[in-house]
Amino acid sequence: MNQLSAISPELLIASVMVASTPILLAALGELVVEKAGVLNLGVEGLMIIGAVCGFAMAVITGSVFVGAVAAMVGGAMLALVFAFLTQYLLSNQVATGLATTLFGLGLASLIGKPFIGERPPPMPRLQVEFLSDLPFIGHVLFSHDPILYLALLLAFLVWYFLRYTKMGLVLRAVGENHDAAHSIGYSVRLTRLAAICFGGALAGLGGCYLSLVRVPQWSEGMTAGAGWIALALVVFSSWRPLRLVLGAWLFGGVTVLQLNLQAAGVGIGVAYLSVAPYVVTIVVLVLISLNRSQRLLNAPACLGRSFFITS
Amino acid sequence: MRGIRLLAAATILLGAVVGPASSDDPLKVGFIYVGPTGDHGWNYQHDQGRMLVEETFGDAVDVSYAESVPEGADSERLMTQMALSGYDLIFTTSFGYMDPTINVASKFPDVVFEHSTGYKRADNVAIYNARFYEGRAVTGHIAGHVTKSNVVGYIATYPIPEVVRGINAAFLAARKVNPDVEFKIIWVYTWFNPPIEADAANALIEQGADVILQHVDSTAALLVAEEHGIWAFGQASDMSEFGPNSHITSIVNNWAPYYVERVRAVMDGTWQSTDTWEGLSTGMVEVSEISDKIPAEVKASALAVRDAIADGSLHPFTGPINRQDGTMWLAAGETASDGDLLGQNFYVEGIDEELPQ
Fold first, then answer.
1. Are B38 and A8 inside 8 Å of each other by CB?
2. Looking at the predicted structure, is the pLDDT value of residue B22 above 60?
3. Contacts of A289 (CB under 8 A, 6+ apart)
4. Is the CB of B186 inside 8 Å of chain A's CB atoms?
5. Which of A46, A270, B41, B111 is deepest in the core (most CB within 10 A)?
6. Backbone angles phi, psi at B99, to 5 degrees
């Protein structure tokens, strides 16, 4: 037990929050996309495009905020390609999503070539008089970068948007039954287009969090599967934004915790800990495949189905 | 009659395609990498070798490569495809390509394969590896000297002999100069994942490490070390530009001369299935320029260690060395055999952690 005392809970929690932010942002975007009835498997590609666009613009302009905006624009533009293919040319969403990932990875390598070895400007951290100096809470809550707080705020806003606004209701209607939504005059395509762009922007922001804050450096393939974890996270949270925050902390948390346990010399059970979130995700997927529980789990009924106007 | 003549012509034509390449045809050489060539680590160095092959032989070779090829079935498919499309020599540059390489090689006896870091050979499969542990002994020596907290962090990949050997070599060298030094080891189970590597470096630093050694391929740990103002070492390639203050030295894998030599052997028809394992003495492993930010006497003694290993007067594994459980491995003065090193699956005495199996 005394081995565990080497782990400082204060530093651990702070690290967990940083580690979970990229997947939280990407998963939040994907949640909105899936709520609109679209399955975009291109999150990994969108994230890495965001990582490289954000990094490149931050290096060129010397401003991390310009970088963050560029990351969102880059992610949204690639998502727009996906949206055009799936919504207007009615291509298969799964295949197009996978292609988006492959295309994104390749394009990011190309854009990133001149930036290998560059160093981005540092991301400023919150430094509030008094609050940041508080013991424990100061380090855990009040010493992070702005994007981390933005991610948490966005989770709240998405929850509010989906639950309490008319636009949110329309978006959910499109995801639940696109024919019905269309028949009462809502534009299924435009709603989905907007959702996909929003998802792309957030995935891009999540990607640039990796290249500007967490590592911070550009290297090819640096997202290393974070996009797939984000996809699993959406299922894990059963399409609920606030549960998604907890899920992101859990997914990010087990990674950081198992690394810390290893450094402290506690080697046993680390493998089981690492695999736990994915086991839960699989359980959720199995439950969804049972019809009766689909409603309980909140899965959008039209998820992954193409919409075309028949009349 | 006409039919037979056609058949004969077709046979001749076919013979020209599958038969031995005439001297006018460029030699087709393929490289398969496990990660991106831009990793500034393992794959980057193999790719440097590929470039030297192209530069050296010019039009006499037709070289291509595939990067980020997953180990296992995908790599086997790619090798088969390359063999079918007329490649003469294929370098497969990751441990996990071992069985696919052997499988494909058995189906294409006329194609020559070179597999890196494995242990299975065939008539048309040569293997090559570098004695990275010699470089790790030098980095361990420096780490033992420069650590103030006496905690050295080590980011390891997979518990295979290659990696375990590196940890042992670094640890023994560090203990030799600093009896109080301890190693904290994190297994990340990946060769390349910058965010996880950065998290691992952070976890080690949070638990007191002020020097970080790594076996992973990216430069993330160096950046984290730079940010925290502690020391770190590069892996596979010279990573000094990523940590102007933190970087002490890198263990550099220099495959290029070997690649040129092997391509020439295939051209000359002198190629044979060989087992190559070279280190500091031939330059297949190099220790890059050591930073002047460490004390001059440490730098001098590190260079002395490097030279002693290179000229054979010092073996990084010289007894007495006990296994972690306290049983004797090497008696006083005895050095480890290559067989012992290649199958190393235990920590040496003094490492206070459990080796995952």
1. no
2. no
3. none
4. yes
5. A46
6. -65, -45
**pLDDT tens digits for B200-255?**
999 999 999 999 999 998 889 999 999 899 999 999 889 888 889 999 999 999 99
Architecture (CATH level 2) of domain A4-116+144-297:
Orthogonal Bundle (1.10)
pLDDT digits (tens, 9 = 90+) for A281-294: 777 777 766 766 66
pTM of the predicted protein model: 0.82
Does A214 sit within 8 Å of B36, measured CB to CB? no
What is the least distance, in Å, from the CA of A224 to any CA of chain B? Answer: 6
Last residue of some domain: B130, B156, B185? B130
B326 in the same domain as B203: yes
pLDDT above 90: percentage of residues in chain A: 55
B122–chain A nearest CA distance, Å:
34
- Which residues in chain A have their CB less than 8 angstroms from residue B352's CB? 265
A185-224: burial string, b at 16+ Cβ within 10 Å, e else: ebebbebbbbbbbbbbbbbbbbbbbbbbbbbbbbbbbbbb
Q: Facing residues of B348 across strands?
A: B323
Contacts of B40 in chain A (CB under 8 A): 116-117, 219
Strand partners, B128: B116, B276
- By C-alpha distance, the chain B residue nearest A118 is B242
The pLDDT of residue A80: 97
Contact B241 A117 (CB under 8 A): yes
Taking contacts as CB-CB distances below 8 angstroms, the residues of chain A near B232 are none
What are the residue ranges spanned by the domains of chain A?
Answer: 4-116+144-297
User: How many other CB atoms are there within 10 angstroms of residue A174's CB atom?
Assistant: 27
